[in-house]
C-alpha cells in the first residue's frame, strides 16, 4: 500500500541518517549544517566574561607569596595570573590576553629567559627595580610602561628595600592558539649588568613618536618598538596637555613605536586614559579583548549593562564587542591592554559608539578572601613546608641549574 511504502521509506531514511551521523562521528567528521549557528555567530561571542579582580586583594596575596614562595629557576616568576571564570580554568584573563600581577621582594632577582610571546609591564607600586631587556637595564617606577618584546632576554632585579608589584600583560593565549610558543633559559641566572643604563630611553629621548592622541588606526609593524621604556612623568605630561586641549574632557593616548607609529608590539596595544570626575565616556563596542588596570582614582565602568566599581590596583576585563563606558568619581588614570594590532592586521577590527548610555541591570561584586590570622600550628606547618620546599629547590638548583 502506498501509505505503508511511504512510512517504510521514512523509517529507512531515518535509520540511514542515524548511521551517517554515527559514521561521521567515528571518522571525526562534523556536519556543518548542524553547527553553522554556533560557529558563524552574528556578532562575536567571547567565552570570557566581564570580570574584575580587587587590587587590594591582589596586593595582599602577592605579599603573602613573597613571604612564602621563593623566585627561582623552573617557576621563573612570582606571578598571579588572572583567570577568567568563563575560560574553564585556563589561566587567561580573556581569550587572547594574559594578565597578571607580578611581585618581587627586596634584593630578589627573577631569572633571565626569553620566549616568543611578547610582554609588557605596567608598574603599580614600589621602587628600586629594573628589568634588563637584551642587555639594557631599564629602571622601573610606578606608572612606567616597560616592554619585553618577543624573544628578547629579560630578567627582573629588585635592588631596593621594598617590594615592587606590577601588571604583566602578554599575548600568550594567542601565540598558544597559533602553536607558536618557544621558551629558552638564559645560560646564566641573570644577564650581565651594563655600565650604561636605560639606553633605549636615552636614544629616543624627546622623540615625538612615543605617543599619539587617541589610538593607532592605520600603522602596522611586525617589529616591536626599540624604545623599551615609557616614563610616567612623560605620559602624565602628555595627558595633561591633551586634557587642556580637550577642555578637560576624557582623553586617551596610545604608546607607539617611535620608528613606525604602530602599536608598541605587533600583537599588543597599550594606552592610557585620563578621566575627569563627573564626565563619563560614551559607551563603545570594539572587536578584540581588553584588560584595564586602574592606576589612579575611583569610579565605575558599565560593561554589558553590569556595573563594576573600581579603585587603584583593580584590574577588569572587557571581552570582545561587549559595550563599555567609564564614570570617574575622582580624577582617574586607567591603563589598557588590547589585542587591537592583530585585529587591524587581519582587517577585522571594528568599533562603534552607542547612541545612549547603557542601562545598569546588575552590579558586580568582586570576590574576596578574609585575611584572618593564620593559626599558630598551621602557620608553623606552612613555614616548615615552604622551607623544606625551598631547601629541596636550592639543592636541585645547586646540582643542576647554573645560578
Ligand atoms: Fe618572561
UniProtKB/TrEMBL annotation:
Keywords: Dioxygenase, Oxidoreductase
Cupin type-2 domain segment(s): 101-168
Pfam family, one: Cupin_2
Family annotation (InterPro entries): Cupin_2 (IPR013096), GDO-like (IPR047183), RmlC-like_jellyroll (IPR014710), RmlC_Cupin_sf (IPR011051)
PANTHER family: 1,2-DIOXYGENASE PROTEIN-RELATED, CUPIN
Organism: Plantactinospora mayteni
UniProt cross-references to SUPFAM superfamilies, sorted A to Z: RmlC-like cupins
Spans annotated as Disordered: 382-403
Lineage: Bacteria, Bacillati, Actinomycetota, Actinomycetes, Micromonosporales
Protein name: Gentisate 1,2-dioxygenase
Amino acid at each position: 500500500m502506498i501509505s505503508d511504502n511511504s512510512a517504510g521509506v521514512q523509517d529507512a531514511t531515518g535509520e540511514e541518517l542515524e548511521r551517517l551521523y554515527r559514521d561521521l562521528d567515528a571518522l571525526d567528521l562534523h556536519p556543518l549544517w548542524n553547527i553553522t549557528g554556533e560557529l558563524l555567530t552574528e556578532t562575536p561571542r567571547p567565552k570570557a566574561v566581564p570580570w574584575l579582580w580587587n587590587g587590594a586583594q591582589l596586593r595582599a596575596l602577592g605579599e603573602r607569596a613573597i613571604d612564602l614562595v621563593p623566585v627561582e629557576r623552573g617557576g621563573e616568576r612570582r606571578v598571579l595570573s588572572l583567570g577568567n571564570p568563563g575560560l574553564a580554568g585556563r589561566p587567561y584573563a580573556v581569550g587572547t590576553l594574559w594578565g597578571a600581577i607580578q611581585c618581587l621582594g627586596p634584593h630578589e632577582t627573577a631569572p633571565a629567559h626569553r620566549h616568543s610571546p611578547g610582554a609588557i609591564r605596567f608598574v603599580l607600586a614600589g621602587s628600586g627595580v629594573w628589568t634588563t631587556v637584551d642587555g639594557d637595564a631599564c629602571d622601573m617606577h610606578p606608572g612606567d610602561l616597560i616592554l619585553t618584546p618577543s624573544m628578547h632576554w629579560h630578567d627582573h632585579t629588585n635592588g631596593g628595600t621594598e617590594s615592587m608589584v606590577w601588571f604583566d600583560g602578554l599575548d600568550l593565549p594567542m601565540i598558544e592558539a597559533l602553536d607558536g610558543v618557544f621558551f629558552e633559559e638564559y645560560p646564566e641566572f641573570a644577564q650581565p649588568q651594563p655600565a650604561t643604563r636605560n639606553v633605549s630611553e636615552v636614544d629616543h629621548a624627546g622623540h615625538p613618536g612615543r605617543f599619539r592622541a587617541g589610538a593607532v588606526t592605520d600603522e602596522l609593524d611586525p617589529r616591536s618598538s626599540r624604545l623599551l621604556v615609557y616614563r610616567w612623568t612623560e605620559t602624565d605630561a602628555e595627558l595633561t596637555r591633551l586634557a587642556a586641549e580637550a577642555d578637560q574632557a576624557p582623553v586617551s593616548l596610545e604608546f607607539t613605536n617611535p620608528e613606525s607609529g604602530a602599536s608598541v608590539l605587533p600583537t599588543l596595544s597599550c594606552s592610557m586614559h585620563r578621566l575627569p570626575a563627573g564626565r563619563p565616556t560614551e559607551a563603545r563596542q570594539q572587536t578584540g579583548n581588553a584588560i584595564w588596570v586602574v592606576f589612579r582614582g575611583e569610579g565605575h565602568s558599565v560593561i554589558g549593562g553590569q556595573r563594576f566599581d573600581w579603585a587603584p590596583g583593580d584590574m577588569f576585563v572587557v571581552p570582545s564587542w561587549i559595550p563599555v563606558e567609564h564614570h570617574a568619581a575622582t580624577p582617574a588614570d586607567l591603563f589598557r591592554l588590547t589585542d587591537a594590532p592583530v585585529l587591524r592586521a587581519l582587517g577585522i577590527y571594528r568599533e562603534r559608539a552607542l547612541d545612549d548610555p547603557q542601562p545598569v541591570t546588575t552590579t558586580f561584586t568582586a570576590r574576596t578572601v578574609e585575611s584572618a590570622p593564620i593559626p599558630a600550628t598551621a602557620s608553623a606547618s606552612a613555614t616548615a613546608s615552604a622551607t623544606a620546599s625551598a631547601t629541596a629547590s636550592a639543592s636541585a638548583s645547586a646540582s643542576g641549574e647554573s645560578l
